[in-house]
Amino acid sequence: MKHTSGISIAGLNKTFGAAQVLKDISFEIAEGERVVIIGPSGTGKSTLLRSLNFLDRPESGRIRIGDLAVEADKASRADILALRRRTSFVFQNYALFANKTARENITEALITVKGMSKTDANNRADAILLETGLAEKADAFPAALSGGQQQRVGIGRAMALDADLMLFDEPTSALDPEWVGEVLDLMRRVAEKRQTMLIVTHEMQFAREIADRIIFMDGGKIIEQGPPRALLEDPQDPRTKAFLRRVV
Amino acid sequence: MEALDLEYMWALVPILLGYVPLTLFMALIGMFFALVLASLMAVERVFRVPVLDLFVRLFISFFRGTPLLVQLFLFYYGLPQVLSVLTNINGVTATIMGLTLHFSAYMAESIRAAILGVDRSQWEAAQAVGMTQGQMMRKIILPQAARVAAPTLVNYFIDMIKSTSLAFTLGVTELMGAAQKEAAGSFLYFEAFLVVAAIYWIMVEVLAFGQRHLEVYLSKAHAK
């Protein structure tokens, strides 16, 4: 189902009321590249991710995923659907469908959105549940799962969609510390498959380990970006230096 | 005070029970159409479709703002005078129409509130996996709203069962009408209306029993 990838974001702007949260954001992601976004809270990292699939609608800019290009200011409902079907999203608060079991959380979009048969969707879901270590929880509803288990289902749901770009919005920030490890392990496994990933996280060690590139954002802008070692050990901009002094 | 004529009451039970199917028929058909109409109106109210929204709000305002009895009289005695297609409307049809429209107005507001109560994360997750608005509503939002709205909707259904007794005023011999006729023949009004009250009461209690099972069923996803 994957299309040719290669993603480019050009001149993305987003305001909430009087506050401009994204200021002319432009960057590219190569196929199979794993990019991590870091930066202080309230800097627009999550908004950037949510703008890419129009959970927050950007006012202007251009998003291109493979051969699909969408102009933010004139995006139609069909454009937005197309964009969402090329991406998958892992939420900070898991956002599992509360009325669906773990397996159904994975199969629902495969069946209703991708038109897959129920049998095929169930097979795919069971394979993914096995991979995420949740085979025994297939028939459990989200309310009966721990935070870590819910987030693993959330990642499984996104994996199943086989999207051109997987977006992770602080996937471990809402977890009790005891569950963070298992979620990061699963994300490492996704990364090993050379899945194109864009991850917002505060887990610096994890970022260093799996990122091909780290982007540092502050005040709605990309301040600096580069390979993990270079950015984390030899940051150029004083804002990057200040941030890294605080968190590392 | 004279003693109740228990023998008469006992004899009346099978006669009146014969009218229970008609009462349930009117209530069930009314409930079905009211649910469909209310769900459509509730979804419209959430998305606020231009122009249509005005009509829906007017509809809800009118059917909540006027007595059911007035609405039934309008459908049965009034409308046929201006709309020739309704000339042959019978009392049962007029009752079902009245119940449907009247209760759909109330139910639309309950369902709308329940929809708006579904957590934002559920809407966003459905959008993020690429669902259309229709898919999102049918698969994710409405089933979750149903759980919240169920107790209120069952209450409306109970009210609707009891309101079928108003069909009596349109000349329909249903449960209440039958009791009235029996009483008029025997002059035992207290006995006759006591029996009919008991029959309504038992029907509602049976339904309340079903309600508890429905709520358990709808809450199965939320059991820890």
Characterization of the model:
The complex is a heterodimer of chains A (248) and B (224). By secondary structure, chain A is of the alpha/beta class. In chain A, 39% of the residues lie in helices and 25% in strands. In chain A, strands 6-7-8-3-9-10 form a 6-stranded mixed beta sheet, with helices on both faces. A 4-stranded antiparallel beta sheet of chain A has the order 2-1-4-5, covered by helices on one side. Chain A is globular and about 50 Å long. The model of chain A has no long low-confidence stretch (mean pLDDT 93). Chain B has helices at residues 6-17, 20-47, 52-65, 68-82, 91-116, 120-128, 133-163, 175-186, 189-218. Chain B is flat and about 70 Å long. The interface between A and B is medium-sized, with 28 and 23 residues.
Give the topology:
The complex is a heterodimer of chains A (248) and B (224).
Chain A: E1 7-16, E2 19-29, E3 34-38, H1 45-52, E4 60-65, E5 68-71, H2 77-86, E6 87-90, H3 102-112, H4 118-131, H5 147-160, E7 165-169, H6 177-192, E8 197-200, H7 204-210, E9 213-218, E10 221-226, H8 228-233, H9 238-247
Helix pairs in contact in A: 3-4, 3-5, 4-5, 5-6
Chain B: H1 6-17, H2 20-47, H3 52-65, H4 68-82, H5 91-116, H6 120-128, H7 133-163, H8 175-186, H9 189-218
Helix pairs in contact in B: 1-8, 1-9, 2-5, 2-7, 3-5, 4-5, 5-7, 6-7, 7-9, 8-9
